[in-house]
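=== How it folds ===
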Amino acid sequence: MTNELISPLSGLRRLIETDQVGPNENEFLDDKAPVWSPHSKIINVTPGPAFGSDLVTQFTSTQTRGMRGPSVAKFFTTVREEYGKLVGMQEGGRALFFTGSGTAATEAAAGSCRFPGEADSDAPAVVTLEIGAFSTAMGNCVENLGRNVIRLKGEIGEDLPFDKCREVLEKDTDHSIKLVMAPLNETGSGVTTDPKKLRDILDDLNHPALLVIDGISAIGSMPCNMTEMGIDMLIGCSQKGIMGTPGIGMLSLSAKAVEKVYEADKALADAGIKKGQHFLHLTKMIDAMDSLGLHLETPGNYAQFAVALDTLAIEGIDRVCERHKDCSEVYRAAVKGAGLELVAKEEHIQSNAVTAVKAPEGFGVQKITEVLNIMFTKHAVEAAAIPGAPDLGWRLCATGGIQPQHALQASIAFLNACDEAGVPVDVDAGISAASKAYRNVAKYHRPLPGIDVYGR
């Protein structure tokens, strides 16, 4: 039998004939002999889109439905209500879904609660607490919207600058600050924070500002409850801990937040000032979802999102959070056993969704990239660098459907790739520590229901 492709019209055949399928372009492979492995499955330990649910993967082949057809509004409303339960949304709140990503939801939140007079005033309207690339991006978003913002920056690897925030709020006796924004999980540095501490500061000072929390990599990965944490606006997305496909940015509002955004919009309207938002306008979206149950525009894939929520419900959200912790325990054991350090400076803020690893002194972006390339091309493991700090190190993530066995494989790939790239690590000690951690967390499991490759 020859190696002729069956179909002369095959897309793969055209790629081969036009030299689009050729040797790997990575320079570190120049003296090596890579082999074809067209059926390799990638172990994805990047922050997102995360390791998805197999149920969602199966569901992607179903028929696309319209956004205005019979019973669609009821289905949309039910999905949003179920999501509200997942995040512990307060009674009287709203779960809003925007077609986009976590960035869309962030911009929708950051543009809200704008009152007349803000543009002509130097008084701050928003406070952002920033401890890494993604909370910095949140601050950039607020600043680019033209809001008067105080950006409180902490060190990468440290907790939120709570004391600085208290000082700013104490000075704001006129209550010009309308939003306090911070991450629950800083995806860039692998640090998890405690939003309840910010809520306690606001309550202690009797300050009316809304607490806006970026839960993008936290929701579905670790405990995240709006009521218990005192969150007024919770930002999320569909493709990380939720285990869905990209396309939906979620913004959940407390009843207090709903009241405040309507109050702000009315004040602008009474003053004859246009809101300055259309697609991401909160009150317009609330009105549409309350009255029609539908979107103002074409929605993201609610059906896949619903299956993702069902996947979380079948496993149980407490077990989901425990599973992410189990995976992160394997990562941390591997890293410490091999003689490397975490970016998170204190144990109690180490994230169970993102394990950020410091590169040894003198091993910068070139070696960091080489390690990632070796992991991908030799071990079929896809990891990530640390955004905003290209010389700092790597991220091994435990979001979505990742299991402890994936974390163990990724840890082994990471340590071997470091060794091959010339990064000083104790591979054997790291793998031994990771294996021991895996033995401690591995559990008997039942596969999720669904259709296997034989159609059963």
